[in-house]
Amino acid sequence: MDFRTCVNIQKEWDIVGARQFGRDFSKKLGFGIVDQARIATAISELARNIYLYAGSGKICFDEVENVGSRGICIVSLDTGPGIKDISQVMEDGFSTSGGLGAGLPGVKRLMDEFDITSKEGEGTEIRVVKWVR
Amino acid sequence: MAKKLKEILVDNSNNLVHMWLEEVAEKQKDVTNSSISQDLFENTNREFVNIIFGSVEKESLTSDLDSFTERVINLGWPLSYLTDGLQLFKRVATEFLIEHDELEVSVPEVLRNVDELVNPIINQLVNEYSGSWENTVSLQRVALQELSAPLIPVMENITVMPLIGTIDTERAKFIMENLLDGVIKHHAEVVLIDITGVPVVDTMVAHHIIQAAEAVRLVGSTCILVGIRPEIAQTIVNLGIDLSKFPTKSSLRKGFTAALEMTNQMIVQTNSEEQTIEELIDSLDRSEQS
């Protein structure tokens, strides 16, 4: 898939950059304030996961279209250690870093579509979509 | 040989200056905007080329160069103005030397000599410039840190911490320290944390707020989270974050009212004139009756 824009995540402040870009992008696509906040929060979670667990990676944005509706597609890519047990990280309250453990399950609830693929030692790819209502 | 080349350059400085000025004007024709007057631009160019020659002639970096760079930085001109200028100078000088007839020097030799003359100036300029930026960035960092976690004791036992902007790990740590220090110092019973100005509350931010509130509870005070905007409330619910351990309010005003109740305080409006008169009449009535 060819992405329009990608934001590299290496430093903690890159999370802010990705979030800001996502917010502007979703505003342009016609999302309301609440959905903009949801998208920004989801990006924040995904980018923070990259920063915390993989060290570096990128967040890519694109516009998607489906019969009559538009949406934003965000893909988080990294080549970090990968996730051993995906069903475990999708449980509420599971965290390896002493956090709240609400990140990934939270992102799933914030967005409309959620896809995760991960291979241990190779990296993780998370693809989320939110449709304009 | 290098000396001879240098002498040629210095001897023909007038020619070179002329060529350089033309090149620079050509190159920066479309770059210069209306905010810089033509006069200022031409003067700066002239001064710049004189300084380059000064440095080339002495084969050392002059203090003029430093003061000139400082001025360009203060004017807010881009670094590319200086580097482009020097690159052009290199080109002009090289071309001139190669075309110079009496010289029996190979082209690489000329290139190397010009490089040796000009590169120290470029290095010096870039260092100066980036140093100035680093300085600015570090000053702003300090300024930002001073702003990052202010604690305002508004009333006896009530303290407010308004948070504005993004919260990162460093700032979260700072907030926690400031909060606990302040609670002890101001003997606050209730602390209001206002997040109206926080653009995104994700699990990390929520986690830090929960930890801060918990720490405040441990030192015997209560924390009220205020300024939760509707969209933030929805994302918090979506994320599944449990904020039920401490009271939350939508606005600072409501939080403040709650804080007053918790500390058994009240804000009373001072008696208006009307009331005073009524009371006076009342007391007169009473005295008459008795």
Automatic annotation (TrEMBL), chain A:
| Molecular function GO labels | kinase activity
Q: Where is the Histidine kinase/HSP90-like ATPase domain?
A: 35-128
Q: Which domain of life is it from?
A: Bacteria
> Which controlled-vocabulary keywords does the entry list?
Kinase, Transferase
List, alphabetically, the Pfam families matched.
HATPase_c (PF02518)
Q: Which InterPro entries match?
A: HATPase_C_sf, HATPase_dom
Q: Does the keyword Transferase apply?
A: yes
Question: SUPFAM superfamilies, per this entry?
Answer: ATPase domain of HSP90 chaperone/DNA topoisomerase II/histidine kinase
Q: What is this protein called?
A: Serine/threonine-protein kinase RsbT
Q: What is the lineage of its organism?
A: Bacteria, Bacillati, Bacillota, Bacilli, Bacillales
